[in-house]
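I had to read the description of the data format several times before I understood it. Each protein is reduced to its one-letter sequence and a matching series of backbone shape codes. The format is easy to grasp once an entry is in front of the reader. For illustration, here is how one protein appears when written out as sequence plus structure tokens:
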Amino acid sequence: MATLSDIGVAAGINLLSAFIFFIAFAILRLQPFNDRVYFPKWYLKGLRSSPSRSGAFVKKFVNLDFRSYLRFLNWMPEALKMPELELIDHAGLDSAVYLRTYLIGLKIFVPITFLAWAILVPVNYTNKALELQLRNFTSSDIDKLSISNVPDGSDRFWTHIVMAYAFTFWTCFVLLKEYEKVANLRLQFIASEKRRPDQFTVIVRNLPPDTDESVSESVEHFFLVNHPDTYLTHQVVCNANKLAKLVKKRKSMQNWLDYYQLKYSRNNAKRPLMKTGFLGLCGKQVDAIDRHISEIDKLSNEIAEERERVLKDPKAIMPAAFVSFKSRWGAAVCAQTQQVRNPTSMLTEWAPEPRDVYWQNLAIPYVSIAVRRLIMAVAFFFLTFFFIIPIASVQALATIEGLEKELPFLKPLTEVKFIRSVIQGFLPGIVLKIFLIFLPTILMIMSKFEGFTSISSLQRRSATRYYLFNVVNVFLVSVVAGSAMEQLDTFINQSANEIPKTIGVGVPMRATFFITYIMVDGWAGIAAEILMLKPLIFYHLKNFFLVKTEKDREEAMDPGSLGFNTEEPRIQLYFLLGMVYATVTPALLPFIVVFFGLAYVVFRHQIINVYNQEYESAAAFWPDVHGRIIIALLVSHVALIGLLSTKHLVQSAPLLVALAVLTIWFYTFCKARYEPAFVRYPLQEAMMKDTLERAKEPNFNLKPYLKHAYIHPIFKDNDGEVEEEFSNKLEDESVLVPTKRQSRRNTPVPSKISGASSSSLPETVPERSVP
């Protein structure tokens, strides 16, 4: 069991690690050759250029102004200077609202920390329950500050109940204000942002098969009939997944060719060689340049054949389409209404913005999505619960007792006080962190299999599962398995009636583990985030071996975007720990506050200077954030009910159950009041935006703007322009042909070809040739 001195040693180590990371960052970011690594966002926006330094050659690579090193922490106030509205304009609403999550943590836990330390810590510390009642029980110094130190049946427990009410009401008040603020920010952002294709476009899936018409013709006829005044244009979805893989493979080959050509240009005496076997480790040795040129030519032929197939094969067209309208109002009506009698057919929803589309999943048949999601739900269940055994085992091993039992030869080493403190205060957290390192990748693969059509929805689903996994395996398993293993001897030697009491007292004793986890994952992890060691190394490797043009350099320095699917569940775990331990072990709260404060400053700096926004969802993830904080509150109520029931205070249960009911009522109120702003677009807002835009730009032609917005990126060149061959295909399909259906009642509008109404058409029309 970790003592206060162990926690102090661990805190010192983590603070020292964080300080070293900050110093390293302060030095590295000042060097001219690292400027593109630590400020790439400004380069990509065209607002910053490489620092030019005249004089000695060394000045081009090393900053010799020693006065700048004395101001190594000036990036912190600089990160806080940018106002929120400017930040939204600079980085988008998603990034700004993500930062507000850290601010909410500070707003909630700073007052709670002061209140808990002023009231609960003295109430807990001035008791002697752990010394008098459970002399045979394993405990630590820090447990004397927790609820475990209060005697059974004591009237002092009413203080904890009152504090639970106070903490819950304060949290709900902050959440209410923030939900209202974020909802207003979202509506203001949508009303004020510039014209975007997704504002006028819906995605239509599960189109019913039609033997008489192609998918494109069927879509156009349907919307001309049912949305005659607002329909503008459409783009069918092609299954270009194989083509995209081939292009990606060719690009990888081209990068290797560039590398070998650069290597040869620097040493003409010897042609570079490579082996053709597995990973280049075995097989026949050949000329690397000739080999890659041959492979690239072969791939280029395959790409041409596959491109031709996609353009001409009707089977490559999926029963889905992006449909654009003349106004936002028309798109809102279509996206938010049922189109046909069958509720599972012709399904419409708002199209994600073009950057947000996950093209690979558009080729998945809609009918298979329900099956895929059921399979992944079952797989996630087994993944979560199969992880319980190894995590519990690793947690047991990562303690002094576990190490001495499994590795007895280390006992002389573990008896050294400093090493013992490091193991007790540092090892459990770092082991758990390492154990979960591949989990986000696994969860993202599962989300992709489920068939979500946007990157934002993929990340939200992955984040939801990551959060549930953390609740079960990081929180519940660490609490239950950890306390049970540590108290195993006590369980064996006591009556069954005493076991619930032991568990009730043992649960808060896991606070020491979570304190170490917060310091490892939170303090040191956040400091490592700003150092950006991996992007730094990768950039210089790419810059040295692959970069030939300025476009290559931009690709090499692109840092990617903020990983919402990993960072948001991490925040929510700290909300959960803070809520649960606020009334149980208030000693944990200062560590939570330090995390939120440090993370807010670091990620504000990263969002302003580093991360390039991958998409913009206008804070669509906020209801998930709100709901998870509510879950943290409910878990804290359940934990307190279970704990007090072991303390002979069963009469407190109705009060805490009532508190949980009030919390659920608050959640339903917020959901009904504010969540519609995140899932629906008010027709009034859409009409206002359309009217204002028509008044400002009465002659703007919307069709050319939307025509190519949702073309698969594989059919665009390096400058983002649609390739001529695919553009010609679109021109052929953009003309409305007379209906081929035997029944003409579904096409009452005049034909764009003949100008006559559908009633004047012949019974059948010869089918035109497919380009």
Q: What stands out?
A: The chain has two domains: 4-194+366-679, 234-352.
